[in-house]
Design brief:
- The chain is mainly α.
- It has 4 helices and no strands.
- The chain has one domain: Four Helix Bundle (Hemerythrin (Met), subunit A), CATH 1.20.120.1630.
- Helix 1 packs antiparallel against helix 2 and helix 1 runs antiparallel to helix 4.
Length: about 160
Amino acid sequence: MGTSRARNALRSGLFLVVAPGIVAGLVPWWLTGWETRTTWPPLQVMGTLLIVAGAVALLDAFGRFVVEGLGTPAPVAPTQRLVVGGLYRYVRNPMYLAVGATIVGQALLLGRTILLLYAAAFAGVVFAFVRRYEEPTLARQFGAQYKDYCRAVPGWWPRLRPWRG
């Protein structure tokens, strides 16, 4: 692994701990203390599956930013290339969907409605951030390549078949 790639991996790891770590870890803990309320066992199983799927998707997306994009997910150290592989072939925002799934999974696992409300607030903030900052920034940085990608790959509801652009 080259020095630049190693630096990006380190930066991505730090960003993973700070951003998703706070949003999907510290805040849910602050809201609930991880205290479980009585809930239907199938919901607990579904919650666990959402947490695991969210964590796997998030780690994959972060790794793609380092390997495929030659950068990080952090706005202060963006990628040099547009990331369109892996889950990005199905949906443009798998990282945000993964964090949201993790929060909803915690709500189901712990039986805590407050986390569903938090997930809804998270979704609203993320949607506004993507529309007002991220999409215009990517359009400026990657031009026609990004516009073609946006036409082919939905932002929030995954395609059934992978895009092969």
